[in-house]
Each structure stands twice: as structure tokens, then as C-alpha cells.
Amino acid sequence: MSKYLIEKYYRTERLPHIWCPGCGNGIVLKAIVKAIDNLKINKDDICVVSGIGCSSRATGYLDFNTVHTTHGRALAFATGIKFANPKLHVIVITGDGDCAAIGGNHLIHAARRNIDITTIVFNNNIYGMTGGQFSPTTPTGDKGTTAPYGNIDPNFDLCELAKASGATYVSRSTVYGVNMITKQVEEGIKNKGFSFIEVLTTCPTYYGRKNKKGDAAEMIRQLNEMTVNINAYDKLPEEKRENKIVIGELYRDTREEYTEKYDRLIKSF
Amino acid sequence: MVFREFRLSGSGGQGLILAGVILAEAALKDGKNVVQSQSYGPEARGGASKSEVIISDNIINYPKIEKCDLLLALTQKAYEKYIDTLKPGGVLIKDDNIKETIKRNDIDVYSVPILSMANNGLKKPMVANIIALGCICELTKVVTKESLEESVINRVPPGTEEINRKALHEGYSLIKSIKRKIYYEA
Amino acid sequence: MTWENVRLMQGNEACVEGAIAAGMRFFAGYPITPSTEIAEISAAMLPRVGGKFIQMEDEIASISAVIGASLAGKKAMTATSGPGFSLKQESIGYAVIAEVPCVIVNVQRGGPSTGMPTSPAQGDIMQARWGTHGDHSIIALYPSTVKEVYDTTIKAFNLAEKYRTPVILLMDEVIGHMREKIVISKKNEIKIYNRKKPSVSPDEYMPYKITDDLVPEMANIGEGYRYHVTGLVHDEFGNPTNNSIIAEKLISRLINKIENNLDDINEYEEYKMEDAEEAIIAYGSTARSVKSAIDILRDRGRKIGLFKPITIWPSPKKKLEILGKNMKRVLVVEMNMGQYLLEVERILGKYTEVKGYGRTNGELITPNEIVSFVEEG
Prior knowledge:
The complex is a heterotrimer. Chain A has helices at residues 2-9, 25-39, 58-61, 74-84, 96-102, 104-113, 158-165, 178-190, 204-210, 216-226, 230-235, 238-241, 258-267, and strands spanning 46-50, 65-68, 89-95, 117-123, 126-127, 133-134, 169-174, 195-200, 227-229, 245-252. In chain A, helix 6 crosses helix 7. Chain A is built from 13 helices and ten strands. Chain A has a single domain, classed as CATH 3.40.50.970. Helix content of chain B is 38%, strand content 25%. In chain B, strands 2-3-1-4-5-6 form a six-stranded mixed sheet, with helices on both faces. In chain B, helix 1 (16-29) packs across helix 5 (145-155) and helix 4 (128-140) crosses helix 6. The model of chain B has no long low-confidence stretch (mean pLDDT 92). Chain C starts with 5 loop residues before the first strand and ends with a helix. In chain C, helix 1 (11-22) packs parallel to helix 6 (146-163) and helix 3 packs parallel to helix 4. In chain C, a hairpin with a 5-residue loop joins strand 5 (102-110) and strand 6 (116-120). Chain C is of the alpha/beta class. The chains are: A alpha/beta, B alpha/beta, C alpha/beta. Chains in contact: A-C, B-C. The interface between A and C is large, with 38 and 42 residues.
């Protein structure tokens, strides 16, 4: 199955990729192409847009229309692409720094417009490409090269941000549960509107090492331990909910999609 | 006298930029070359506002006006700010509420009840700019009445054509009623 | 000439009219004085011709959306002013290296920073050339009448499509906001250039192939030619690379595809230059003041003329050299403290005396000022 997916959807001549051993990005990427394969969408009709950072290098390895843009601006480029040609399935691959710091404004407004873009955030809690600086999702107290005494910034809940901004599909998963990522990407692509999928992933090289989280396998195990499915979470007693990250489908809404609204305006003349 | 440079001044919101555009468009319809420009501050209402129009048979390069041939002033503040920019021998058309605090012996002054006609006569304060255009046209003949009316109708909001046409005619009459001997040929 | 084609039009409005005539069907922008009318008029006109207008959340998002739309096949434009132009610079570099045709309008106002938002300036001449980081060439055009705004906007789109490059259209507050007569060209009189589409099958397609004219064929997203677009240095397939030989080939191609075509790209106007012994170089609204000044100086017997570059970048090198060789003196008048002056000195300073006159107080330079400068200087 993996071989089939790789040969069908990867630019195999571009492999091996630049990601470190133990990096979770490859797991997310495979889940994404699996979702696309399950949905049987023609490769020509898919445009994958990314920003800058480790995760954003994914576009280079994928055999779709791919656009590797500037730091933080993937959603703004993607908005132009989708608005110019609404027939395309536009998927944005981004990271926690790319999406929540430098690109935070674009996330808010793409969600507010409810433009039909599926955004997948590879959240590894660190700036990996530049060597381990803390990001908006680095937990308070954790270390990075620019937080040598521990991070004093509060960390962001990206799903809450996306929901509050107007996304019509919001979910979270981890690289511990690949099938859940695939399912969520499928649902995100099927949702006619702005979909936001946060995938918790691992950076053993920087985040793990700086914070003594163990090796990649250990980090993935920890991801499982610190998360709880939304269905189970509701049944948990209050004291057991503390410090748990909720995964699963977190929010859904139905609102008219942006490009369809504008097409109605054009047709009115 | 050849009227080439017009400065229309008052406060923001009085429609002076629109008046400048209408005057320029009328001149264009008459086959003249025109440039209309404005300088403005950050405030949308209040403050001093001015619109400038150059009308000429020749090509107009420098698009700004330093000294004008005709100054329209609808507020005291605008009058005081711009009266010195009127050329010697030039014409001032001012609202009659404006006090002539700066005496100039080298200009012709027409004091016209523009605002009271708009507010009390026509009960539409927003047509003061069009009344003023009527005054300028009747006095200077710089544009034909046909072109001016066409231009007014073209530029005012739909539904207000009649009141604006009326305002224009009030402008023609108001300036004529002022007992002055001098009329100008364009 | 029929009345329907004659209009009283503002510079900013003529820019949108020209853009739509050139085929613009996508505009993304953000409100900023004194360029806002371009966004407002685009918002009103575009949906009526089946085009798209979007007000983005900021200046960077606007240029980014424009690049995205162009990749997806639309002719796209954004408009801004000083501070917004600064914000867009990184993405302009992206459009340069990824070779995405688009038009960026900068209606200049006083700076630096917030400066004088409602006053004209010509302080972004060098920013237009070197605003984005890294070595590159750029096309920047600068009209000085409302009719020229219309024609030059069409030219900006044509050059963007022909050379697969961002084109900067400079204006200033005076040109953007003044209204004057314009005779709109008939549809069949307007020459439109569209990007070269792939002449090969998707299997054979190389999105950044080095061809004789140095401009690769461009497939739009969604047409079956899947390829990778990146701001990284890339090979002919679009794949990122650190290979220094490939890097050098790419960067020199990006520069040469423009610099090898100066005759096609450079446009200028000469005014009373036939018997001139002295020339003033000026552009944009300042060129209008200079024309009035030249009329006065000619009446006083001075043999002086105007050279007005409409293409600011790349420089009209050959033409400037000829001026340097033939003129007793060349004067540069601009609403800045000597930006284009540097370029003029660089090119013709070895042949003749070059002097500059500049001012940056938010007021258009007057003809009388220029006359005094010429007579006293």
C-alpha cells in the first residue's frame, strides 16, 4: 500500500526527503495522500500550497500542482489560487510557526471568509528548520534555543483559534493515530468551506532533545498519553481532564463558502 | 478677462470636489482642455477643503494652481485661508455670511446668499455646491449652460436630478440679481 | 473621436480601466491613501466582467493572493502606496524568482514611514529597483498624464506576461488623483500580450526551461501540467537546489531576460529636444511642471528640452549616453533628494555636467522653481 501511494503521489526522484530520522512529518504526509487516494481526486485538480519551515518542504515531494511560498503566507497565496479557480481542491501544508506566528493573521481571515481550503498544520512545537527556537505552540516552561531558561509565553490552542475565527471544520489528531489523520483530511477536503486540521507531530532533533523527551518512539508514545479522544473526554471526571489535549473532530458548522458567494455576485449582473 | 484657474473652497462635506469635477466635465464637453485636482487633509468632514480646476484651449501641463482667477469661498475659514491666492483683478464669489475681514481693492467681490438659498430656499443644504456652480457659469461664461446641466445630471445621485437642476437655475438668478455692471466674456 | 470615448477621468480610475482592457480579471488589495480608489473601482468593475476582487487582511496577503491568482491563470494586479509597497517587497522577490506575471501599482506619497499620506512624492524610485532582497532585474513604469496611466497600465500587463515577471507601475498622488481628459482607445486598437503556454505535453514540460528568449513557457495550475513553484533557487524542473552552477544560470537568466530587451521595454517622451543644448530629465507629475518651465525658458530664448523616461527601470542606458554626449548640461528634477539623479550620474556623468534639483515637502515642484534653478544654477 505504501509503495503504491509513494509511486502514485510522490515525486520519487526528489527522495530522500530532508526530514530527520524520527521526524513525524512523513507520517502526516502519507496520511494526506492516503486521504486523497481514498477520495479518488484527480491529481491535476489538487493544488498543495505551503509556507516556509520543515513541514512546508512537503510540497516539493508531492506530485500535484505544488506551490512552496514565502514564510507565513501560504494561506494568502492559496486564497488567490482558490478564488481564481474555485474548481481546484486547495490544500495548505503549514507548521506551527508558519501558521500561528508569522501567518497568524492569514489563518484568522481565511477562516473568517470560510474559503474552501483545507489547512493541515504539522505542529511539532518548535521552529525546526532554523534550529530549535520556541514557537507559539511550545508549552509554557519548555525550552528552545531562544528560551534557554524556559518559555514564559503562554502557548496557543490553534483549534480554538480556528473555531473562533470561523472555520467550518476543525479537528486534531496525532502521528500516533495515522488513520485518524487520514479520516480528518478526508472530512476536511469534503467540507465545502475552511477546514482546519492540527496534527501533533514529533521533532526529536530539537524539541525532544532540548526538553529531554526521549527518542522518537518515546515521543510518539507520549503524544498518545497526553491526548484523549473528544468522545472519551466528555465522560472523564474533572480531575482526569487536566493537562489532556483533546483530539478528534472538534467542531463543524455550515456557512456559505466564499467563492460560491462571489460567484453569485458575478451571476447577478 | 480670461478665466483659466478656479479655486473652489469651503469645508469638507460641502461637495466642492464634486463641484470641481462637474465644472471640469462641462468644460470638457465644450471641447476645452481641463485638469481638476484637489488637496485635502485626513478629515472627511469639516476642515478646509478645496478643489481646483484649470480650463484652457491649450494643453495643460503643470496641473496645480498657485494664483487663481476666480475664488469661490463658502466658509469664513476658507475665505481667510485662500483670499491671498486670488490674482489681482480676479473675482471672489463668497457666501454672504462671510465677513470681509481682509480688504482687497484689486478684486471684484460678489457676495451671494448661496447657503441660505440651499438651506432655506430649497431646503436641501447639499445643493449649495450646485448653486455656486450656477453663479460661476452665469458670471464667467466659462462653460455653456447646456454642458453644465448635462454634467450636473451625469454626476449627481439618481433621484436628485430635479432639485439639482433647480439649484443651478437659482445660481444663475442669484448672481444676476446682484447689481454689478461688469459681466465677463469667456 | 466620439463622445463615448472621451471621458473626464482620475488617474487611479484610468489605471483600473487600462488594467481591465489589458485583461485583468483579479485584484487583491488593502486600503491605503492615495491608492485606495484603484481598489474601490476594481471592486465595482471586476464582478461585472466576470473578474474577481478581494480585499485581503493586509498588504502582504494582497500581493501573495495576486501571485496565487496569476499562477492559477488570471491576469492579476494589486495597488498600494509607500508603506504598503515596503510590506510587499518580499513577495515581489518571490514573483521575480518564480517568474509569476503580475502588476504592482505604487501611488507614491510622502515618506519615510507613514510620512504624508495625502501628499505626493517620488521617494520610491530606488525602492522600486532594489526593494526586494537579492540580485534581480525589475521593470518599473511611470506615467505622467491620465491617458498615459491608461496606456502604461496596459503596457505593464503586457510586459509582465511577455517576460513572466512582476511589473511595478509607479504613480504619485498628483497623477493618481487629478482628473483630465482621456480618449479611451477602441478595443481593436489595444495590443494585448498573453503568457506563452506550453507547446509540449505534460510529460515533456519543463516549467523553467532555458529557451532562446530566456522566458519559459508557463502552464497554469489546473491545466494538467503539475509542477513545483518555489521561492528557492531551482532547476529547470522547478526543483529546489543548492547547486552553484544551476543557481548562477537561473539568476543570470532572470536578469538577462529583461536586460537583453531594453529596446522593447524602454519607453520615453522627448519635449522640445530637437535643437536643445540642455536637457532636463523628469518623470511622473514633475515632468508636467518641467514642460511648463521649458515653455517659459524657451520664450526667454533658452535651448532646453525635456527627456521623460516612462520606463524608469531598466534604465534607457543607450539613450542616456547619447544625451550625455550631446548636451552641455543635464539636469534631473524630482520629488526626492536625488534618487534617479544617481542613476543618471552613473550612466552619463562621465560625458557631461549633471545637476539635480529635488524637494520632499509634500508639494509638487513648481515651474517657476525649475526656471530659477535652470537660470541660476
